[in-house]
Amino acid sequence: MKSQVFRFNNFDLLRLIAALQVAAYHVVSILEVDPPAFIKSILYFSFMFPGVPIFFFISGFLISKSYESNHKLSEYFQNRVLRLFPALIICVTFSFVLIFSSGYMMSAKAGFFDWGALYLAKVSILQFYNPDFMRAYGDGVLNGSLWTITVEIQFYILVPIIYSLFKLRDSEKFNYIIITLILFFLLINRLYTYIPEEYHNQVAYKLMRVSFLPWFYMFLFGIFVQKNFEFFHEVLAGKIFLIFILYCGVGYYALTHNIALGNNINPVIFVLLALLGFTFAYSYTGISKLVLRGNDISYGAYIYHMPVINFMLYVGFSGYILNAVYAFVATIFLALISWVFIEKKSLKLKRHPLNPLNN
User: Fold this and answer.
1) Percent of the chain with pLDDT over 90
2) How far apart are the first and last CA of the chain?
3) What pTM, to 2 d.p., does this model score?
4) Mean per-residue pLDDT for 238-252?
5) Spatial contact of 285 and 10, defined as CB atoms under 8 Å apart
6) Is residue 359 part of a domain?
7) Distances from the Cα of 280 to the Cαs of 104, 219, 314, 356, in angstroms?
8) Looking at the domain assignment, is residue 316 inside a domain?
9) Which of 14, 27, 93, 283 has the most neighbouring CB atoms within 10 Å?
């Protein structure tokens, strides 16, 4: 019964909402679109719900449960690879096709091995690699959203390590251990956040940004909620309207009082956002199935929106609301293609998954 309650949720829909929030923000800001007032209000409202922290929380919640359900390392990592890399490889290849068709590949001062190194970095674990010869294309990065893939891969590697090191599967002191780890990595996050802007172009800062260190507390909080599922489900399940209203009040206060949101979200706001996400996932749990019909285009929407934006920016399709609409529609179309022809087929190859169409 507990397993059925755990699996029947709205996480697919929540991930899609988070991906669309990130995509909408990038479309409007990078294409330098000045949308109508009502759209601007919606975008302003969406800033209270930053997508990346939501992803990290969901990942901790679901990946930890997946590992606990099947901790055979070969199958665990095979499942992780199937979830990320087939769609990622096709997306990176598509990005190169767009660059070639735009004419930039011919004009850039880069040789075959330069382009080859970039391609291999993006389809492996070095998604953060951004060479100087890309600076004149789009926003200057092949696909800026992919930095989180590097971080997620580190999360995947760390799960078996921390479970083995601290014996989290069977430890009676789990909550003490995980809270200690959360506080430790939260301290690192705060130190990272307060690094003066003058150091942001330093290599050390950039490497820290794409490491697990500043973000791991978000993932660990997902594990904490998962391990205390019964408590959080009893307190929060079905209360989406109440929690949503309460969070909106806190979020609006944060927006109007310069309290950090976005990727560097204030930790207190993050905890509230994560609990809102949990409440959404376990309130009216048939909504996701009703809306998505078993489809999950969130990953595709997340990885494809930047290649579309960069191509449009380079060829001059920016500055108008209609171009933003084109970018958004193209992203959804590519995400659907990715899901139907790549991701859905890849996920069927997973071994003993927690959910055949989930993480």
Assistant:
1) 92
2) 20
3) 0.96
4) 97
5) yes
6) no
7) 43, 18, 38, 21
8) yes
9) 27
